[in-house]
Specification:
- By secondary structure, the chain is mostly helical.
- The chain has one domain.
- It is built from eleven helices and no strands.
- Helix 2 packs antiparallel against helix 7 and helix 4 runs antiparallel to helix 9.
- The longest helix has 28 residues.
Length: 279
């Protein structure tokens, strides 16, 4: 029971950090190139993770643990780039729930092969998730279809892959493995920025939002790893995937965003599908 409580607390805390960080990063991406925003975001997170590793006196991990972290970072950064682009192009209250459905669903599918078939409630969650994506994507016509849906789906795949890969890291290597993930992600970002000849640093006016996003994102990663290590991967992933609640809430309160009625129903179905999948 103690392990269950730990998974719930860490998972929900991770979702709160990620949702708030995504709002900050998405807002910053509306003022600067998304690759530059994510690069500084990850650099801030790397400094924080290295500091935590030294404070906790965590032993240096085995090469295999660093490899899992590096692979997770390369997959995760593609998800972050797609997600921030979706947040910058479209409505945050729509892009976040769409990505969360796949973020939650992929680890559950992985668990099917490692821990058995899902329950009927979980299957019902998958059905609701598919219906939610259709409603959120908008069926009123091409001219009214919200932007960034494809990017949000790609982001969900990247986040789900990150969850699966980083869960292979043992408890003794948490901070170093996450730092390795940040390092590999930064290398990928530098290559992308060089090829596309984009600036490495966003405007100074957006740096506070970028730094805040980096801190919250790194803390969310740490909390998710703690959640996955204290219980089942699928439960940790589902709870952590509730991050759209924070993103949607902040977008409504701060940006005064509004969505169409059917799209609002889709958002609610997406948020409902996430806990059903973990039932």
């Amino acid at each position: 029971m103690n392990h269950l409580y730990a998974t719930i607390i860490f998972g929900l805390a991770a979702s709160l950090c990620w949702g708030s960080g995504d709002f900050s990063g998405g807002l910053a991406s509306r003022r600067a190139y998304v690759g530059s925003v994510v690069l500084i975001d990850y650099a801030v997170g790397l400094v924080l993770l290295l500091t935590l590793a030294l404070i906790w006196r965590e032993p240096f991990p085995a090469p295999s643990d660093l490899l899992w972290g590096g692979l997770a970072g390369m997959v995760g950064v593609l998800g972050v780039l797609a997600f921030y682009s979706a947040l910058a192009r479209g409505k945050m209250g729509i892009a976040a729930p769409v990505s969360a459905v796949l973020t939650a669903g992929l680890p559950v599918l992985y668990s099917i092969f490692t821990a058995g078939l899902p329950t009927l409630l979980q299957l019902g969650g998958f059905v609701l998730a598919g219906l939610a994506i259709g409603l959120i994507a908008g069926l009123q016509g091409l001219s009214e279809r919200p932007q960034g849906i494809g990017l949000a789906l790609l982001a969900g795949c990247g986040f789900g892959g990150f969850f699966i890969l980083i869960s292979r890291v043992p408890p003794a290597s948490t901070f170093w493995a996450l730092a390795a993930a940040r390092c590999s992600a930064i290398v990928v970002l530098l290559m992308v920025l060089r090829v596309r000849r984009r600036p490495l640093v966003p405007p100074l006016s957006g740096m506070p939002l970028v730094a805040l996003a980096g801190i919250l994102d790194a803390l969310g990663n740490v909390l998710f790893v703690f959640a996955a290590q204290s219980g089942r991967l699928d439960v940790a992933a589902i709870l952590s995937s509730l991050y759209p609640a924070a993103t949607v809430g902040l977008s409504v309160l701060v940006l005064r965003e509004r969505v169409a009625r059917l799209q609002a129903v889709g958002i609610l179905l997406a948020l409902l599908a996430i806990p059903l999948i973990s039932a």
